[in-house]
Write the structure tokens for this entry.
Amino acid sequence: MRASPLRQWLAVAGLVLLLAACTRSALPADQGLFIPPTLAGEGAPLILETHTPLPPSPTAPCDNGLVFLQDLNIPDGTHMLAGQTFEKSWQVRNDGSCPWVRGYTVRLVGDVAMGAIDRQALPEVPPGETAAITIQFQAPQLPGTYRSAWKAFDLGGQEFGVQIYVEIIVQ
């Protein structure tokens, strides 16, 4: 019995594959099947730089300051009638490096309020600039000498600067 042409072709193909598998590789015997890459040039290592940002420098804390310049009205020792209402104004300067911003206050720190609200807004003033602080008062009903002392406070509730005050004599 004769083999079909397809069988003959398959037999020849199998023989070719078998012979190809049995032949020696063209690679040198000491390298096996792997050829390591070679570096072109001098072979110096390649250093990759990555940008590392510097940490932000901390901002130096500013200092609060208030300096009294002058009484704008109602000098100390002014005579008032019992129950008389009046406004007292002081000229001050922001002598610190912090701006006075919304939330800064002047607060009653001593003696009597004389009808004033015990916490008042401090004007918004940049460092080195001057401003007027004005507070409404009412003279007490009884005769005598009365004083109302105030200080500035920052957003954190820390007092700063010099004390300002009004002193009157009720007749």
Remarks:
- The helical segments are 5-22.
